[in-house]
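Note to self: user wants both folds in one dump. Writing first protein now.
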Amino acid sequence: MKRRKFIASALAAGATAGYATQLLAQSKRQELNLSENAGDIYISLDKNYVAKNNVTDLQNNSIPLSDWIYGNIRSFFLYLDKNKISAINNSEPVDVTVELNRAMQDGVPIFLPNGEYIITNSINVGITSGLVGAGAKNVVIDNRGNDHAFIFPIGYDRGTKDFFGFSLKSSTGSAKDKYAFYFSSAPSGKLEYSVGWRFIGIELEGKGMGGGWYLQDCFRVTIRDCGASALSNGFYLAGSVVQLTVDNFVNNGDNHPETTLGSYGVYMGTKKYNDGNGIKMPEGINFINCKFVRQDIGVRALGLYVQFVNTEFDYCSKIGGLYAGGDKVDFINCYVASTASRHNDFYAFIIQAHAPHTPEPILVSNCTINMQKNKVSGYKSYGVLLSGGASFLSGARVDNCFFRGDGYENCIFANRVDGVIINNNTFRVKGENIKIESAKNLTICNNYALGNYSLPKPGPAYCWIITGNSGSFSEVDLSQANSSLIINQGLFKS
């Protein structure tokens, strides 16, 4: 069997497969001297022992010990003394800060056997290092320090480096404003990248640790099939984060700690560089099949070509999706639901202008908004807010969305918009479904409403297309409207 097949088989076998030093400690079948040729010693993938290669039942389902020690993956037990190995095998938590830092500088993936590992300071990851655990239920890393758990380096290496199959917590609660995985930035404000990291099958316990991933100055990062509980902030993206994919991430944010930032499923922001690159923002960002539960704000979205697809912002207390600027930000087939008690006004989506006199193509499409009536009186709740502020918002589109629940002030509220499209939405809500306070160029077509529409008096420069909608419209005086105004509802006085 070729070496790559050995490695793939070893990883697939998981915790039952084995790691050389631990199996040696457990085995009573044969005493082996590691000074012997490691290529002549084989590790069984389905039987809990090691043996010389003349044992016939090892030949077809085993890997050479040399592949563990010198090859593509290396057991962490090779860095520990006998006392620590024995303690881990006896299910005792062990401080491995020094040893894990040393292992992370050796430039190879490190295999973590079953056990609980304590770290008291940050682990500095080497540019080509990886960390492969025997599964999130079997391998626990406890950050008892007051800093980030893992710090990733700046350095251009395009090869994929995996962090896989373990859980991470902070039992002391001393890292509430820190992150599980923190990406460094280059000194003196330069733009340099960290490349090719992949995180798979990791579980985070956030009660004592505020954040999951702090990403900056990196590209080709993939986070897949990970989960968390009680995280205040799942992801922080700062500056030039390029080609990030997050697929199937779930955070149940119940009882998350209070942090300086607040509570966001995803926070995205700009960053200024001093080497001529100026201000940069995230680019090519995809969140797919994710669920953020009980955050104050589901996402603060900002960047170039940013997509949230099949993503839930459930039981939010303030905002589901907040557009904070950029170019081409999409919310597609997303779900927003509010908490029952909200000590503030609530918005499922806030889409505000950030580039005066420039179209901002923001898409809210096929989304579902499920509003609970607020048990706290004195506050209003909105579905989608479209606002131009001091300028006008142009290029936004709300299409094929479903509004349900109770307690809406308005399902869609638009003020100072120009070139906004509201089409094909379904409102299973009574009251004011769509309210327009000020709109120059506006399209409202083929919406199905149980409630009503409120429109202002159009000025001479306004151009509206309003047709094919169900529901009732307020009376509108069209006497001074532009001749290009197209209204086919039959509900307006002229």
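First done. Writing the second protein, which came from a different request thread.
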Amino acid sequence: MKLKRIAIANRGEVAVRIIKACEELGLQTVLLHSDADRGSRAFRMSDSQICIGPAPTSESYLNIEANIQGALAAGADAVHPGFGFLSENADFAAACDKAGLVFIGPSSEAIRTLGDKISFKRMAQRAGLPLIPGYEGDDQTLPRLLSEVEKIGLPVIVKAAAGGGGRGMKLIREMKDARDLIESAQREAKSAFGSEKVFLEKYLDRAKHIEFQVFGDSTGKVHHLFDRECSVQRRHQKIIEEATSPSLTDDLRRQMGHVAVTIASLANYKSAGTVEFLLQDGKFYLLEVNTRLQVEHPVTEEVLGVDLVKMQILTADNSFVFSEQDIRIPKGHSIECRVYAENPFMNGMPSTGKLGTVHWPEGPRRRFEYGFESGDVITSHYDPMIAKVIVWDETRPRAIEKMIRVLKDSTVFGVHTNIPYLIEILSHDEFIQGTMTTRFIETYFAEGLRSKHSEADRKKFSQDVYKQLIQKSANSTNTAVVQDQSPWMSYWRGV
């Protein structure tokens, strides 16, 4: 292997994930971190660390020059951008190349072609691939955009051309709101991605969100690694993902897989990427391509028995080529839940603070990817995701049951989490049947959860727990025993 040291231009659980993959490949790691992440789990696990700036992302994780100089100062051979931040920034990929650093991901040309939603749509149109009706023209004046909204017909969704993740995205249901929503989308797009360019799409109000994992090896040969169901979303951000989708017939899976490979091949794609679709009434439409590793990549790894991060690194090292043994058929079913620091009883309000006891119940085919441990601080600077919980089982019903059990047995103290919210979603009839659409959350959980307990109930519960802790403390000289026997360890069993 030619690569020796990998710089990680990211944070949290994805940085930890990359560190573990590098360890298995015998590679050294250097974490490029902000001042706010000094002492984080990734900081503690990496071989070396370089601070690239203060907490604000514009001065650290989104600062191309700071990341390049940090990687060079550390003597790195390559940079892994993870997901989010600069992972889909073509200028960053080009800057890495110019500095003599291997960018672990697709080429800057591929990112520019596919990552920009407008150029992607134009390429798909030329190839005759199925697209949602919309407008992606260069005329970005407000009168022209308003005119196109009327032409497409309501409802219409406005999206940032240069990014994703729900930022710069607004839904227009009435023309009287169109002007304000377009201007708001442009401001958000400018702030998040450095470009206020937007495009318009007809909004499909009963659609399912399906994505295909694609991968281009060192030779440029592209395969798809099957599909994921990502319809459970809140504010256009995914909460629960599964592999494979319960919504696809064998024929639909074949057709969509072919389209996914076609669009990636047209861009000479190498490394991991995701082709996203909307599916409604048996018809599918290309949505976008994410030119990076996906947050939900573990569910694909679980049903196929592959390691996408190691495949990325080996491809960047020009030492990964698909063989017949690499082309696998999915086995069983995998589900991923994103655990956020937020209050589910206050419509997902972010929750910050120092983590107390954190306990993940390990067991067969249970996987936990997390960037925070007991004693770490959840700040307001970044995404509030604490961990990803992933399970695998032989069937979808068994995987759902396992995930509910795992979440109930998980403990996160010090901040509120969305664990009760996730349990309610997993227990809902529509989710169990696999018929949910992207409007599932909006329809059933628009205002989060309603507490089943009165203030008096909560006060009594707290008092009872306090009495138990005091009593156990008085009966033991070993504080570790008190911690192990704490009723908090099984708190979510009562949810």
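Dump finished. Worth passing along: Residues 478-495 have pLDDT under 50 and may be disordered.
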